[in-house]
Amino acid sequence: QKDPDYLKLWLDSFVSSYEQFLDVDFEKLPTRVDDVPPGISLLPDNILQVLRLQLLQCVQKMSDGLEEQQQALSLLLVKFFIILCRNLANVEEIGMCSYINHVITMTTLYIQQLKSKTKEKEVADQTPIEEFVRHALAFCESLYDPYRNWRQRIAGRIVSTVEKSRQKYKPASLTVEFVPFFYQNFQESEHLKESLKCCLLHLFGAIVAGGQRNALQAVSPATMEVLMRVLADCDNWDDRNPEEVSRKAELTLKCLTEVVHILLTSSSDQRQVETSTILENYFKLLNSDHSALPKARRCRQWEKRFIALQVQMLNTITAMLDCTDRPVLQAIFLNSNCFEHLIRLLQNCKVFQGHLDCLAVSTIQALTAVMHKSPAAKEVFKERIGYAHIYEVLKSLGQPSRELLEELMNMAVEGDHMAVGLLGISNVQPLLLLIQWLPELESPDLQIFISSWLRRICCINRQSRATCVNANMVIRIIETLNSHSSLHSSCAENLIALLGSLGSQSMGSEELLRLIRLLRTEEPKQAHPYVVPVMRAILAMARKQGMASALQYFNLYHSMAGIAVPSIHKWPGSAFSFNAWLCLDQDQVTPSTTSKSSKRKQLY
């Protein structure tokens, strides 16, 4: 305490001994070290009090400007605290002291200096200040996300709720200074480096991922306003590094995803912001009116960047919905009119010159995510939007790419369309849309690819055939075959073979009549090109062999399906018997459920 030089020497020696714990780069996972820094009880007596006074002196001298020696001391103190917090047993005690408030005060003043720096100033002048800011933010992370949950999420590793509950040491209580600090640092921040903005976003993400209590304190109207403003600013790159701006957008979206997941696990009295409010602002930004912008900004380069941001935002919707409380979040999305927003996005994007396809693909992915495994959501989409409308919107964008058509296939099976045999039909409507679109496709290869896949997925088992028949797919196929001049012969053969398979399941008189009419030609002596394949299909329908010949049956596919028996007083006598053959089809298995315990089917 009486010898500052000796104190600095001791701090230098301590930091040098444990330098491997100074992981200030948020982008990297912390290095695994066998050793741990010492506990507070093993440090010299009164050392924390001495360091608090040293830090306070640095804060008091900040207004006049710190000398180089004092700058070095303040950085050394922050490094010391980071190292100390890497022994997780020290986190709570360090968090209760006033160090964090002093460090935040200094960081705020330094960031103000960095924001006011002009381009004429030398970069070298900023280096010590920047170094302090980066270490200060890393110190905050050490307090509020001691297990580095955020870094693990950024690296692609999901920390489960169970894993979080097993974390022995809790993060320090969040200082009330954080929200004003975060808000203020993004005010008038045009000259602040993008990399430092990314560090601030990393810190916010770390606080939200570190623990629910701190997260709910940090997620406020002010911080949400900052995130939305940062996101809106990402389409205006000026002379900034495009990679850094793109990374800033990516981090902001990851923060919002983490926020939505945290809010889902909280009660209404704990929340300062509702998920519905966040989604309302999110969709408003996603569908922002670019036509109102000055023509100078609506250049080709800006258009490309704006669409890239929209694609990132659409992909984030899928990430948000990848959570344990998915049905609850799907309901919130439905109440936020997400379907209308997503369709409007497709309609508005027609004003752009190019890059439409990637936007359409991401929109279909987002729609699929909202409807995934939710009959209610599918019904809402059918009523509010309708597949006829989305077909017209997609068709208006021009010839579709293979990627877009494959995304519609994924929507139908709610998974990877290539996993035919594993995934059955979850949503038959996109299949009807694809059949209708076939004559409009100019590429014969795409026609053959789509029709071949449809033939496989629709005929994979009895359940798939029944689903397609109940959706009136036979009529849709016949209507498509009427445009035979636009269909490749192989595509037509695939559709007729599919029709034959579905017809063997069920074929009504109207459908049969339409099929026969299909073969009519204007020239009486000229045979229709479909005569031979259609006759084969009709023969296939008539041919009945084995167990597949049952014309009427009960479909007990769904988990709640059963046969209701009338009450006893309605029985015709004292008893009655009921006889039926039983056919056990193989269940479709989704990759996500293969790890779970298999269901046991029981017969009573």
UniProtKB/TrEMBL annotation:
GO terms for molecular function: protein kinase binding. This is Neurobeachin-like 1. InterPro entries: ARM-type_fold (IPR016024), BEACH_Domain (IPR050865), Neurobeachin_a-sol (IPR046852). Keywords: WD repeat. It comes from Struthio camelus australis. Residues 298-541 form the Neurobeachin alpha-solenoid region domain. It comes from the Eukaryota. One of its GO terms (biological process) is intracellular protein localization. The keyword Transcription regulation does not apply. Pfam families: Neurobeachin.
